[in-house]
Write a structure and sequence with these properties.
Blueprint lengths: L20 H7 L7 E5 L2 E9 L3 H18 L4 E5 L2 E6 L9 H14 L1
Helix pairs in contact: 2-3
């Protein structure tokens, strides 16, 4: 099995299967710093990245936007002074798809 960062998002549609509990338990090991949050019954992946100032936070946010466009999968991004909160989930299925884990892993690569 290839690592998450080596994979590409697949087209996702309404009715696509959510990631199974077993698959999530296995794949989350590749992104251990991400938290699983449930908002309004929707499971999401979330991580807060810290920066020294707003300019660095904005630069990182722009990298996340570029990643999102390249993958065709778009997160929630909250940019504040010294931090960026990134939240991945699949809107079409109101839950987590493997795409979310792939993008979370690739987001971590941006901050390395």
């Amino acid at each position: 099995m290839s690592t998450l960062t080596e994979q590409k998002c697949e087209a996702c549609r309404a009715g696509a299967p959510e990631v199974s509990e077993a698959e999530l338990a296995q794949l989350i090991k590749e992104i251990p710093d991400w938290n699983i949050e449930t908002r309004d019954g929707v499971m999401q992946l979330e991580k807060v990245y810290s920066f020294r100032n707003f300019k660095q936070a904005m630069a990182f946010s722009n990298q996340v936007f570029e990643l999102a466009e390249a993958e065709g999968h778009h997160p929630g991004v909250l940019t504040e002074w010294g931090k960026v909160t990134v939240t991945w989930w699949t809107h079409a299925i109101n839950g987590l798809h493997k795409n979310d884990l792939i993008c979370a892993a690739k987001t971590d690569q941006l901050s390395a």
